[in-house]
Amino acid sequence: MNNSNREIWRKALYLKQPFPDNYTDSTFLEELITNARCRPRHYWPVVYEATMIGQQVAIAAGVSAAFARGIEDKLDVHVMLILDVALLLLGGTLQLFLEWRGISKHKSATDVGRGDYVVSRGKLVQGSRQCVLLVGGVYCLSPLLQTLTLTISSDTIVCLVVFSLSTHVFLYDYSFLSSMTSKLTGSSSLGAAVFASVLMASRLPDSLLVFALILFALELFLLSPYLRRDVRQASTVAHIILSSVTMCSAMLLTAFVSRLMTVMLLSALVFIIFICPWWLVKIQKVKFQINGPWDEAKLDRIPIKNYKA
Amino acid sequence: MIDSTRDQQLVNSLGRQNVLFVSDFFYPNCGGVENHMYHVAQCLLLAGHKVVVMTHAYGERAGVRFMTNGLKVYYIPRLPFYEGNTFPTIFGNFRLLRVILIREQITVVHAHQAFSTLSHESILHARTMGYKTVFTDHSLFGFADGSSIHTNKLLKFTLADTQHVICVSHTSKANTVLRSRIPPPRVSVIPNAVDTERFLPGPESRPPAPTINVVVISRLVYRKGSDLLIDLIPMVCKKLEHINFIVGGDGPKKVSLDEMVAKHGLGNRVEMLGNVTHADVRNVLVRGHIFLNTSLTEAFCIAILEAASCGLLVVSTRVGGVPEVLPSDMLILEEPQAENLCAGIERAVQLVPTTCPFTFHDRVKEMYDWKDITRRVQVVYARAHQTHSDELLPRLARYYTCGRFAGKLFCCVAVVNHLYWGFLEWMFPRKDIDLAPDVPSPGDLDNTPETPTGSNSNMRDAPDVHT
């Protein structure tokens, strides 16, 4: 035995070595690397990212509060319509402004010429056309939507709404909001939001109110992500202001319906924005990532999403 | 070679074993695992042991079949449901397995491949009945993605109560030990081998002097590095004039490869063969000077061994267990990037005139031999027989340490299985199960020229897996 121990073990299969097959050398697991690609997370950046989720929760809560108020018949249709138009105009203008600012920022002064205005004008025309189609479509459909679920009990509706709004928040494409991807995906999430809006609308007393509220919901669920993304990209301060405004208005809306709901929304937001990041940073310490020669080699040329063989 | 004498003693003390090989993967499937099982089984038969294989039915191929040298194969009536695996039912195969174990008077259950659900279930059942179990792991796994996490947990459960584990390379051993947290001395490294007689060099098939052929034979999938190949081939063709490529194999990436050939106008320099049967591999290999392997992950890589046996110089990516397979003068290793592999091929081209295919063949023959591998497997069986405590309580203790929740779950499964075993013993008593007559193994035939009784009627034409 002494004799054989003096020989050095080599990590090779082609050699006949004087060691038993289950011999474990002192170099065993030397090539193991732990936590090589782990970025340490810090509290405030994570809080900043978490505001995106906060925004989405606030929007879901705000829209359902508006509908609840409408179902109670305590909502003035005209106020709601004015709010819709104001939101649409405000959002549209802000978006155009950000776009114009983005273009002039990226190109040097000499490059800013007619071409850019053409791009903007094209977008404007396209946006207005889509807007007209959306508004017209919703207006024509609203009498139908109003009576859609007459034969279904309200309990079922409430249950489905809660379920689909939770689905919406859970499956939402947050990487789009954080500008990690350039296209808004997550159709099931968007579908769930629209489904919830339609269900709630079918309990409203007046078809014009259905129109106003559905438009409100669509503006927030479908159009606002683009604006929120651009705002976030443009400036940190603007993002924080927009988030606060969104969350405060949502709480204000819920306050009209029920105090309890406001308290619950507030605690949910605090939990998501302040407690969860703390939690994540804390459990980072137990993160244990192992790499070694058995790992599949990664090719630089292929985007991560195409990894499947 | 002090330990080898100790190993020899272990083998000598072993006595005749009745081994049951279990895996979802077996002939008529073709691949590394199937090949390995078949060759080890043949060599064990030659060494005088009895080998029975259990796998699931492959289409028409169901029931009991006999293969070369009386290798008995049970194709049990289970349908494959995902990637050639049977549906995991935990208890569903116990009744059948128990009958086979008793009928064939099995002494060791040897399961193959961590992907195979049949292997995992069989080890659980065999352990419930107190049989010694051995497990061979043929592949590498990651730790980060969902499927790996679940497979690793399952492996932990299975290996916690397996007497000995065999891995095909040292890298694979490290991987398995990390995945299943079993003590490293319970894992033996026993590589694959190659049937060198079937991979003889044939330099006369090579093209005349200045031209050098680079052969690639692999499934054309992402994990085998087909994307690397797509970048590499135009690069090499542009840089080196006399290099031609022969690409054998099929797969989802074939379209991209064809596209690359058309785009760069390399139709006369790249020959796409499509699917190459295992019997034709040698005929393709001998046409080349250099073998290229672009795998991104590989536990052992038997392809480079076959190529080296045919006298080809091998250029490969430095992944997994590949660096352990051949010495550095037969194998040029590069990082898995097209630029590096291109440089590797350039180096290989310079080395080709100095290499002799027949020396390569003889060296591989010296290094890898199924008989030697089988001797080492027998040592593992002997070690498995040296272990104790097959009763339920010590087994439960081992399962319990597998995890806070999983440990308790595993214990429940083991206990339920134990009760089920009791039920089976009552419902289908042992005494009612006929014992299978032995087919004399080829090792026996020389000494005792006795004709087998009874089993001849079951014999069918045995297709040879050598194809």
UniProtKB/TrEMBL annotation, chain A:
InterPro entries xref list: Plno_GlcNAc_GPI2
Pathway terms, separated by semicolons: Glycolipid biosynthesis; glycosylphosphatidylinositol-anchor biosynthesis
Mode of membrane association: Multi-pass membrane protein
Short name of one Pfam family: GPI2
Segments forming a coiled coil: none
One GO biological process term: GPI anchor biosynthetic process
Cellular localization per UniProt: Membrane
Ranges that cross the membrane: 46-67, 79-98, 154-172, 208-227, 239-257, 263-281
Primary location: membrane
PANTHER family on file: PHOSPHATIDYLINOSITOL GLYCAN, CLASS C, PHOSPHATIDYLINOSITOL N-ACETYLGLUCOSAMINYLTRANSFERASE SUBUNIT C
Name of the protein this chain belongs to: Phosphatidylinositol N-acetylglucosaminyltransferase subunit C
Naturally occurring in which organism (per UniProt): Cymbomonas tetramitiformis
TrEMBL record, chain B:
Compositional bias annotation for Polar residues: 448-459
InterPro entries tied to this protein: Glyco_trans_1 (IPR001296), PIG-A/GPI3 (IPR039507), PIGA_GPI_anchor_biosynthesis (IPR013234)
GO cellular component: glycosylphosphatidylinositol-N-acetylglucosaminyltransferase (GPI-GnT) complex
Region (Disordered): 439-467
Swiss-Prot/TrEMBL GO biological process terms: GPI anchor biosynthetic process
Domain PIGA GPI anchor biosynthesis: 56-145
Pathway of action: Glycolipid biosynthesis; glycosylphosphatidylinositol-anchor biosynthesis
Domain (Glycosyl transferase family) ranges: 213-349
Enzyme class per UniProt: transferase
Annotated EC: 2.4.1.198
Record's keyword terms, sorted: Glycosyltransferase, GPI-anchor biosynthesis, Transferase
GO MF: phosphatidylinositol N-acetylglucosaminyltransferase activity
Keyword Transferase part of the UniProt annotation: yes
Keyword NAD: no
Protein name (Swiss-Prot/TrEMBL): phosphatidylinositol N-acetylglucosaminyltransferase
Organism (species): Cymbomonas tetramitiformis
Lineage, top ranks: Eukaryota, Viridiplantae, Chlorophyta, Pyramimonadophyceae, Pyramimonadales
